[in-house]
Protein backbone atom coordinates (compact mmCIF):
# COMPACT_ATOMS: atom_id res chain seq x y z
CA UNK A 1 0.00 0.00 0.00
CA UNK A 2 1.25 3.49 -0.86
CA UNK A 3 1.25 6.15 1.82
CA UNK A 4 1.19 9.91 1.99
CA UNK A 5 2.81 11.40 5.07
CA UNK A 6 2.16 15.00 6.07
CA UNK A 7 4.21 16.26 9.00
CA UNK A 8 5.46 19.37 10.73
CA UNK A 9 9.25 19.51 10.55
CA UNK A 10 10.95 21.86 13.01
CA UNK A 11 14.37 23.28 12.11
CA UNK A 12 16.01 25.85 14.40
CA UNK A 13 12.66 27.16 15.62
CA UNK A 14 11.11 27.33 12.15
CA UNK A 15 8.25 25.03 11.17
CA UNK A 16 8.07 23.53 7.68
CA UNK A 17 5.35 21.40 6.15
CA UNK A 18 6.85 18.04 5.28
CA UNK A 19 5.30 15.94 2.53
CA UNK A 20 6.37 12.38 1.74
CA UNK A 21 4.66 10.23 -0.86
CA UNK A 22 5.66 6.60 -1.28
CA UNK A 23 5.81 5.73 -4.97
CA UNK A 24 5.64 2.30 -6.61
CA UNK A 25 9.06 0.83 -7.37
CA UNK A 26 10.78 4.21 -6.83
CA UNK A 27 12.24 6.34 -4.05
CA UNK A 28 9.68 8.51 -2.24
CA UNK A 29 8.74 12.00 -3.36
CA UNK A 30 9.73 14.47 -0.61
CA UNK A 31 9.15 18.17 -0.05
CA UNK A 32 9.72 20.66 2.76
CA UNK A 33 7.59 23.79 2.39
CA UNK A 34 8.17 27.10 4.17
CA UNK A 35 6.49 30.48 4.01
CA UNK A 36 8.89 31.82 1.36
CA UNK A 37 9.71 28.73 -0.67
CA UNK A 38 10.24 25.00 -0.79
CA UNK A 39 12.82 22.26 -1.17
CA UNK A 40 12.15 19.01 -2.99
CA UNK A 41 13.95 15.82 -3.73
CA UNK A 42 15.46 15.22 -7.16
CA UNK A 43 12.01 14.94 -8.77
CA UNK A 44 11.87 18.77 -8.90
CA UNK A 45 12.21 20.16 -12.41
CA UNK A 46 14.37 23.21 -11.72
CA UNK A 47 13.77 24.70 -15.17
CA UNK A 48 10.01 24.73 -14.60
CA UNK A 49 10.43 26.13 -11.07
CA UNK A 50 12.59 28.93 -12.51
CA UNK A 51 10.11 29.66 -15.29
CA UNK A 52 7.31 29.88 -12.69
CA UNK A 53 9.45 32.37 -10.72
CA UNK A 54 9.34 30.31 -7.52
CA UNK A 55 11.71 30.16 -4.57
CA UNK A 56 12.77 26.53 -4.83
CA UNK A 57 15.76 24.25 -4.36
CA UNK A 58 16.42 20.54 -4.55
CA UNK A 59 18.48 17.84 -2.90
CA UNK A 60 18.97 14.30 -4.21
CA UNK A 61 19.54 10.78 -2.96
CA UNK A 62 17.18 11.24 -0.01
CA UNK A 63 14.51 9.00 1.50
CA UNK A 64 13.47 10.94 4.62
CA UNK A 65 13.16 14.48 5.96
CA UNK A 66 16.36 13.96 8.00
CA UNK A 67 18.15 12.85 4.83
CA UNK A 68 16.96 16.05 3.15
CA UNK A 69 18.20 18.29 5.95
CA UNK A 70 21.63 16.63 5.93
CA UNK A 71 22.02 16.66 2.13
CA UNK A 72 23.79 19.28 0.06
CA UNK A 73 21.68 21.59 -2.07
CA UNK A 74 22.12 20.39 -5.66
CA UNK A 75 20.35 23.28 -7.36
CA UNK A 76 18.27 26.37 -6.66
CA UNK A 77 16.23 28.91 -8.58
CA UNK A 78 17.53 32.45 -8.92
CA UNK A 79 14.97 33.62 -6.35
CA UNK A 80 16.19 31.00 -3.86
CA UNK A 81 19.79 32.00 -4.53
CA UNK A 82 18.89 35.64 -3.86
CA UNK A 83 17.80 34.53 -0.36
CA UNK A 84 21.13 32.77 0.21
CA UNK A 85 20.20 29.19 -0.67
CA UNK A 86 23.40 28.13 -2.41
CA UNK A 87 24.37 24.97 -4.25
CA UNK A 88 26.78 22.88 -2.16
CA UNK A 89 25.49 24.09 1.22
CA UNK A 90 24.02 21.54 3.63
CA UNK A 91 20.28 22.16 3.55
CA UNK A 92 19.80 22.48 7.31
CA UNK A 93 22.24 25.43 7.31
CA UNK A 94 20.19 27.44 4.78
CA UNK A 95 16.59 26.19 5.00
CA UNK A 96 15.73 28.88 7.55
CA UNK A 97 15.90 31.40 4.71
CA UNK A 98 12.78 29.75 3.25
CA UNK A 99 10.74 29.94 6.48
Secondary-structure topology with pairs:
Layout: E1 4-11, E2 14-23, E3 26-33, E4 38-40, H1 46-51, E5 56-58, H2 65-70, E6 75-76, H3 78-82, H4 91-94
Parallel strand pairs: 4-5
Antiparallel strand pairs: 1-2, 2-3, 3-4, 5-6
Can you describe this structure?
- The longest helix has 6 residues, at 46-51.
- A hairpin with a 2-residue loop joins strand 1 and strand 2 (14-23).
- This protein starts with a strand and ends in a 5-residue tail after the last helix.
- The protein has one domain: 2-Layer Sandwich (Hypothetical protein Ta1206 fold), CATH 3.30.1980.10.
- The protein has 99 residues and is α+β, with helices and mostly antiparallel strands.
- The chain has helices spanning 46-51, 65-70, 78-82, 91-94; strands at residues 4-11, 14-23, 26-33, 38-40, 56-58, 75-76.
Q: Mean pLDDT, as a whole number?
A: 97
Number of domain modules:
1
* Percent of sequence in beta strands: 25-35%
The largest beta-sheet arranges its strands as 1-2-3-4-5-6
CATH architectural name: 2-Layer Sandwich
- The helix count comes to 4
Distance between the termini: 32 Å
CATH structural fold name: Hypothetical protein Ta1206 fold
User: How would you classify the helix and strand content by structural class?
Assistant: alpha+beta
State the name of the first-level CATH class. Answer: Alpha Beta
Extract low-pLDDT stretches: none
List keywords for this structure.
99 residues; alpha+beta; Hypothetical protein Ta1206 fold; six-stranded mixed beta sheet; 21% helix
